[in-house]
Amino acid sequence: MSRIWAMMAGGLAAISLAGAAQAQSAGDAGRFSLGLGLGTNGGVVEGAYRLSDQLVLRGQGAFLDFDYGFHSNDAHYAGRFHFNTGGGFVDWHPLSSPWLLTAGAVTGERKVKVSAKPTAVGSITIHGVVYPITEVGSVVGDVDYGDTAPLVGVGWDNTFFTSGHWGVRAIAGVAFGDHPPSVALHAIGPFANDPTVLSNLQAEQVSLRDHAGDYSYYPVVQVGLTYRF
User: Fold this and answer.
1) Are 187 and 138 in contact (CB under 8 A)?
2) Burial category of 94 from C-beta neighbours within 10 Å (exposed 0-12, middle 13-18, buried 19 and up)
3) Nearest alpha-carbon partner for 160 in 17, 59, 31
4) I need a labelling partner for 42 at 20 to 30 A (CA). Which of 6, 76, 113, 122 fits?
5) What is the mean pLDDT of the chain?
6) pLDDT tens per residue, range 162-213
7) Three-class SS string for 101-165?
8) Beta bridge partners of 166
């Protein structure tokens, strides 16, 4: 999680540097724009429409896959974030300048695929209980942060505040997913349906849900180029 927050800090620095550029007149280069970008929410494709000097409507598609580990009690999990989302936002430029406040929501698949990592001696830990992989071969499941997450943020976007067609957009914010997230785990192996294993697995779900809850408030930082027409 610290790596993601570090990326957010870097994004804020990028916004500050961008803000040093002088805004030009909006001119008549057009009210529509298309953009491409990258960020903590993955690769981004965007479209925007300028309602006025202060209000811009923006739609977005974002696609993210990356690996990140979790831990719960004495268990360790390999996790793969898989976020394929769309979003709609209202950007408010209160000073009729590139600086903005944004609010909206993202919706779509926001899950993490997890699998317990066996130890070097070939065992799996479930809620603090160690099982040989000959009894419980693996534990797999999903952490689901919900299909819809409100998002608020700040940024700098000169798309409609320059006389040319090209612009730069940089945004930093937070998406508020389900807290706690829903967690579903199941074991694979000859003892997978043993009542004791199932009981420990249920307790492990609760523990993993608490640890995975740190990602319910997901920092979103993105920087991209836009083309106005």
Assistant:
1) yes
2) exposed
3) 31
4) 76
5) 85
6) 889 999 999 999 999 888 899 999 999 899 899 999 999 999 888 888 888 8
7) EEEEEEEEEEEEEEEECCCCCCEEEECCEEEECCCCCEEEEEEECCCEEEEEEEEEECCCCCCCC
8) 227
Cα–Cα distance, 17 to 1 (Å, whole number):
25
Reading the block at residue 65, the tokens are 């896959």
Under DSSP, the state recorded for 97 is S
* Segment (H or E) for 63: strand 55-72
The enclosing H or E element of 20 equals: none
Residue 111 identity (one-letter amino acid) = K
* Residues, the chain: 229
DSSP assignment of 168-193 equals EEEEEEEEE--SSPEEEEEEESTTTT
CB-based burial label for 154 (10 Å; 0-12, 13-18, 19+): middle
Residue 40 · residue 3 · CB < 8 Å: no
> What does the buried/exposed string (b/e) look like for 98-115 if buried means 16 or more CB atoms within 10 Å of the residue's CB?
bbbebebbbeeebbbbbe
Mapping DSSP to helix (H, G, I), strand (E, B) and coil, where does residue 41 land? coil
How many domains is the chain built from? 1
Amino acid at 51: L
Which has the closest alpha carbon to 41: 63, 8, 70? 63
- Output the domain CATH number for residue 43: 2.40.160.170
Residue 64 domain boundaries: 2-228
Residue type, 64: L
**What is the rounded distance in angstroms from the CA atom of residue 65 to the CA atom of residue 85?**
12
